[in-house]
Amino acid sequence: MFSSNNNNSYSNRTTENNDRSRSSSNNTNIGYSAGLNKKTPSNCGSYLCIDSDFNSDFDSDVNNIHDEDESFDNEIRSSPKSKDQSENFTENGLESEFLEQNIEDKDEKITRLEKKINLLKEELEIAERNAKKAEEEKNKLINQNQEYKNSLNEELMINKQINNENEKNKSKVNQLNMTIKTQITKINSLNMEIKSAKSKFESERELKEQSESKFYNIKRENNKLVKENQEYKNKINSLNQRISDLDKENSEINNSNDKLSIQLDIYKKELERNNQYL
């Protein structure tokens, strides 16, 4: 899951190393075999200038390094994770943000439903108190009617008054009965609304829990991808360090070759002078 810059730099470095390896195989000059394109004197055009076993071992080490680089490069290119991890990481990040917003929206909606339920409960309590008060008022009037009947039963006028009062009270009782029925209907309606609100509340809570579960799963997957990305980066850094160490060794070998070439030139000149004396 490493960046395209890291991929490009590593691929370029691998290509450069492979070019050096091909240059080494096409040129008998020992300077080229060291990988630094530094020529030795033209009169030393063979590996026989120095120990042939050394040349053979050195070429084998260099070729092994190139083989390992190419193998690792092919492994990274063929890995489905190396192709998809960056896109997955971006998509998971966007989905994670969406789920976070979705959870916040669910919380807000649940809060509103809770407030609505509390308001409906308050209205229910008020309706119940009104119904109770009406019932008490009705019972009080009924008791009053009975008292009127008992106390004014002897005289017609009183009876008429009682009847009139009873009619009035009946009208009031009917009104109170209608009020009670209305309050009962309202109570039933409020109970239905409360049940509906509770059902919505439970549904929203379940959706929130599902969203939270999905969010944490994606977050764990993102953490796993980040960890894998770091492992790939560490592996690349290790290979880069190895390449740097080999370049340093190559430089030292070339310096040694240069010294050997100079020494060989001196020996040749001395040999020529000796031949002249002879």
Write a structural description.
Residues 96-270 form a coiled coil. Residues 1-37, 61-95 are annotated as: Disordered. Residues 74-86 have a biased composition (Basic and acidic residues). Residues 1-15 have a biased composition (Low complexity). Keywords: Coiled coil. The chain is mainly α. It has a single domain (79-277), classed as Helix Hairpins (Orthogonal Bundle). Helix content is 89%, strand content 0%. It has five helices and no strands. The chain has helices spanning 4-26, 30-33, 52-78, 80-151, 156-277. The chain starts with a helix and ends with a helix. Mean pLDDT is 72; it is low at 1-55 and 79-89.
Name a few traits of the molecule:
single chain, 278 residues, mainly alpha, Helix Hairpins, 5 helices, rod-shaped, disordered N terminus
